[in-house]
């Protein structure tokens, strides 16, 4: 499970957490504070901006953000596209049979938030080959596909570049749903990573529980959170094209509203979005 009940810790006790315990504490912090995360995909068809939902799928978002930060998806192909359904990528092999998580093994589904559904164009979710088989592959919907609710972890949405999705959907494919004109993900950019600030906050709390807090450590925690907030605020504003906003842009804004559509055909089987 990705949740845990935190054991009360006494001040001045030498608190030492395992890597797994620390990660679960970070997830608890992310769920509590509901930060946003933002990713930009640079593809051969155009650019796409994503808003991720760490509070709803902390493990999935950490996996995706870390892959993006490390360049794991760079120069990979979107190997499967089905009109009126979705486009799938994230496999370094480029054929739908590869890809792994940042932990080197499959991880569980995070389908707890029933408010997240496959409604409309631009839903971002994990492709899998059954329960608890998540690795690196993901998909973006062209239309609503509610039959996938509860089967695949929804961890984000497209908030910029819907025209790019439209271009992708119009591309011709072969009998195996592979685009005849290769759709390549050149690189990814991480604009706001909440896990950096969350881990620093957890580490600061652990230092406090050990009675080791000093002003310098508090300042590091504050600066880490401030850096994240600055990036998150400007990226959450509707963008005009994909030019990086200037420094004077700040404050919360309205997100781009996604389209809605109809329920569509079931996809073929393998590691897939069905």
Task: Describe the secondary structure blueprint for this structure.
Layout: H1 19-33, E1 37-43, E2 47-52, H2 58-70, E3 76-77, E4 80-82, E5 86-89, E6 123-126, E7 138-141, E8 154-160, H3 162-170, E9 184-192, H4 194-209, H5 215-235
Antiparallel strand pairs: 1-2, 1-9, 2-8, 3-9, 4-5, 5-7, 6-7, 6-8
Number of helices: 5
Question: Main sheet, how many strands, which sense, barrel?
Answer: 9 strands, antiparallel
Give me the secondary-structure category: alpha+beta
Q: How does the overall form come out from the CA principal axes?
A: elongated
- Approximately how much beta-strand content do the residues carry? 15-25%
Percent in helix: 25-40%
Distance from first to last alpha carbon: 23 Å
Strand order of the largest sheet: 3-9-1-2-8-6-7-5-4
Q: Which residues form runs of ≥5 with pLDDT under 50?
A: 1-13, 238-269
Give, in order, the helices and strands.
HEEHEEEEEEHEHH
């Amino acid at each position: 499970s990705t949740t845990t009940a935190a054991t009360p810790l006494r001040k001045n006790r030498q608190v030492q957490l395992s890597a797994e315990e620390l990660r679960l504490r970070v997830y608890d912090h992310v769920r509590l504070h509901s930060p946003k995360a933002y990713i930009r995909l640079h593809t051969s068809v155009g650019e796409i901006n994503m808003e991720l939902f760490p509070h709803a799928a902390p493990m999935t978002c950490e996996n995706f953000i870390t892959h993006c930060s490390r360049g794991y998806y760079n120069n990979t192909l979107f190997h499967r596209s089905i009109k009126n359904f979705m486009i799938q990528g994230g496999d370094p092999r480029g054929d739908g049979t590869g890809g792994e998580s940042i932990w080197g093994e499959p991880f569980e589904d995070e389908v707890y938030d029933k408010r997240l559904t496959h409604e409309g164009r631009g839903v971002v979710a994990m492709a899998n080959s059954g329960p608890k088989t998540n690795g690196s592959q993901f998909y973006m919907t062209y239309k609503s596909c509610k039959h996938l609710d509860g089967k695949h972890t929804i961890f984000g949405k497209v908030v910029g570049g819907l025209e790019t999705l439209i271009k992708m959907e119009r591309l011709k494919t072969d009998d195996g749903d592979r685009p005849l004109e290769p759709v390549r993900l050149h690189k990814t950019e991480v604009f706001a990573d909440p896990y950096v600030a969350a881990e620093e906050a957890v580490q600061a709390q652990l230092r406090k529980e050990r009675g080791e807090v000093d002003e310098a450590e508090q300042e590091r925690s504050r600066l880490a959170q401030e850096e994240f907030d600055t990036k998150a605020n400007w990226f959450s504003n509707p963008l005009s094209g994909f030019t990086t906003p200037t420094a004077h842009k700040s404050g919360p804004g309205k997100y781009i509203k996604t389209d809605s559509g109809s329920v569509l055909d079931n996809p073929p089987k393998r590691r897939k979005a069905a």
